[in-house]
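Please decode residue identities from the backbone states below.
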């Protein structure tokens, strides 16, 4: 899936970044490889340079992660994070190498069912939304930048959303909590529309960020690995 991210600049929305999401077959059929990349257009790098790369290997049966890595460049911040999950024992080993030199590594215990951010998003997409009533809340346990977080997702109902080409989709609408960092202050909510069908494609995502507001719209989509 390919997306275009717009930034609210003054009175207009300007195309500022591209994002790609993939679910790929793994050499081992027990697993699926997830990959996401985001990149601000070079003409806007002077304002806020963004380069993000995520890759997660998840168990095909449980959809929980086995390994994950992230390379982030957000303005002046940069880091490379690796995670190794043992879902059976509830142990996660992590290591973070930061551009600032403030590196960290360690072990989390008793964290069965925890995900990295990319696998958490895929895991939630596989949830049966038809079970949810308006304002029902779903929680995802995640590990981000060496911390444990409980992401709150609230169902807001169903409505139509359009992609970047103007195509309409009947969607389930959600409000998602954020994590404080270089992009978010931590008190914002992300509004997300997922197609209300078997594909559950993220069609549009809107959120306030530290330096304004973003609007991410689907430009193209193809089949995903099951």
């Amino acid at each position: 899936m390919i997306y275009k991210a717009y930034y609210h600049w003054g009175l207009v929305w300007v195309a500022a970044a591209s994002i790609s999401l993939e679910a790929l077959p793994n050499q081992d059929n027990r697993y699926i490889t997830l990959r996401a990349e985001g990149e601000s257009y070079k003409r806007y790098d002077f304002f806020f340079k963004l380069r993000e790369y995520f890759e997660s290997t998840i168990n095909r049966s449980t959809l929980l992660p086995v390994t994950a890595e992230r390379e982030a460049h957000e303005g002046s911040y940069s880091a490379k994070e690796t995670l190794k999950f043992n879902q059976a024992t509830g142990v996660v080993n992590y290591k973070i190498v930061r551009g600032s030199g403030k590196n960290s590594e360690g072990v989390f215990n008793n964290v069965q069912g925890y995900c990295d951010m990319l696998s958490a998003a895929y895991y939630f997409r596989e949830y049966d939304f038809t079970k949810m009533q308006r304002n029902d809340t779903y929680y995802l346990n995640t590990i981000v930048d060496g911390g444990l977080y409980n992401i709150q997702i609230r169902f807001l109902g169903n409505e139509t959303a359009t992609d970047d080409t103007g195509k309409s989709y009947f969607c389930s609408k959600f409000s998602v909590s954020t994590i404080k960092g270089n992009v978010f202050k931590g008190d914002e909510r992300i509004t997300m529309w997922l197609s209300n069908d078997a594909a559950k494609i993220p069609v549009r995502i809107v959120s306030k960020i530290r330096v304004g507001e973003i609007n991410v719209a689907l430009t193209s989509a193809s089949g995903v690995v099951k």
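Observation: Residues 51 and 186 are 20 Å apart (CA to CA).
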